[in-house]
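Now for today's protein:

——
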Amino acid sequence: MSNPLLSTAALPAFASIRPEHIAPAVEQLLNKADAALALATSEATPADFEALSASLGVATERLGASWGAVGHLNAVANTPELREAYNAALPAVTEFFTRQGSDERLYAKYKAIAASPTAATLNPARQQALKLWLRDFVLSGAELHGEAKTRFAAIQERSAELAQTFSEHVLDATDGYAYYASADEMAGVPADAVQAARAAAEAEGKEGHKLTLHFPSYLPVMQYGSHRGLRQRLYTAYVTRASELGDKPEQDNSAVMQELLQLRQEEAELLGFANFAEASLAAKMADSPQQVLDFLRDLARRARPFAEKDLAELREFAARELGLAELQAWDTAYASEKLKEARYAFSDEAVRQYFPVPRVLAGLFSIIERLFQVTISEQPAEVWHESVKFYRLERNGALVGQFYLDLYARPGKRPGAWMDEVRSRWARPEGTQQTPVAQLVCNFTQPAGDRPALLTHDDVTTLFHEFGHGLHHLLTQVDELGVSGISGVEWDAVELPSQFMENFCWEWEVLQQLTAQVDSGEPLPRELFDKMLAAKNFQSGMQTLRQIEFALFDMRLHAETDSAAQIQAVLNEVRSEVTLMKSPDFNRSQHSFSHIFAGGYSAGYYSYKWAELLSADAWSAFEVEGVFNAETGRRYLQNILEVGGSRPAMDSFKAFRGREPQIDALLRHQGMS
């Protein structure tokens, strides 16, 4: 039987991959990668860019692509058998990439290339890739020796295991919860959510309405459900997931978080940094933890008066109109929706009727085609679930890239939304041009019966956000693997293209293309759009402080050397400093904060606000010159998307805007100017 993970086909055979394929494939690919590393570091391979790419680049890219397919399936189609096989292979894969990244002989060869006269003859992308590789060798422990090097490798392996454990606990706690609500308890919840919950219960032969902690089930109750007891029940379950207050002690992430923070601090000290935040920022735009803290606190100071006004209005309305004398955490989404309906005379549920998925995708693709001179067409491909679609991007008949689109929530699929790469653009050493492939993943409500799935406006914004990441990866014109697409882009700038795309969701000309009422087919009425626009910055002060709370907590955790022993205390201090409405004592949101404990955002969550400043300023050029201005679109494509990580992000921004970024546009967009 052939092993699909060993196939050299252009696309992974996702539907054919089985857990039993993983161990033999990983073993064979690791053996080849080991042999390639041995050859690359031997005297037979000169200190030459092309020679190292041919000997080592091909083997490690092949290993990375196959392991990436396994990791992707582990995130979107998780089963006990797949998880077991993934976890069994994880240590060996981690060990190889750690060893490669810290190999002194390989490091010496790249240093020799950088010191040679030929370095100046490398094209700019290769020069940047070489610069980043030398930096990453240092950050990967290549300058460590003896016990320090051994310990560094052990830290990498254990950290990878802990991050996977953290993610599994969150997934299992989310998947493992169910409450069967009565019809009375479902009062106020939108009809399609009620129908879906009833169908889920019926499928199990049970009475009532099955509610879970997956967002398409959870959010409609929190936002529209008038039964306060039900909201409190679901909120409590949601914010205690994977914690000591959850109903399964084996899913508690407390010890996992503590050990991860301890290991990160030890890793930073081995590399000569005072704390992990300093080590993390060595590869980012921000200069120091203090600069990030100052940035966040300055933004909090600017947002606070608006947030105080938001909260005062919400409390007054909740007490006067809803009889909620003491507003609680499980009331805020519900009361906020009622206040928005009263103030602006529309509801998110009414808006949702205008965003059926087929219409939204058609409109989104039309915008991308118009702005970036490409065509998008659906293509057949092996996929991991029947709802997944596969698409092809072309320009003038030539393949530019391809992407998978996985929109809907389901058991065994990690919560959240993300873009990941299947492969990157690369002028391969064999002489062929490799084009990029991306995976775009969301967790929207599934279609019910014959009706298409409907998206909230927030869902649409999320979809555009992930497509921004996807376009950054797919539209690159850089042929060097290390700096192609999103590779090599500073982490605190990588959100620029994603947040930039969100702005299209607030343009009348765009929404006319995105909307069609699910029954009548009529586009969104101008009157309803004007109400949405008036409500755009509804509670923006409170929302800004909430994001700053997460970012400040993350940065303090990784900048303070003793934080591992007092995670809750640090969070409490941050909440006291930033938030206006006290969280319940039982709130353990940190136990499911996968971004920083399992998702690569450790000491980097601030990048959402940092990049938001960049994206708002970039978008302001389109506001002045026209949303579909061909010349502005061309400048953005050429100076931001196409160059990928081939130069510093600030250089790319200045090439597009002609100056450094300014905060004015961000404050104006959020109604806080």
Summary: The chain is about 55% helix and 5% strand. The first helix runs from residue 19 to 40.
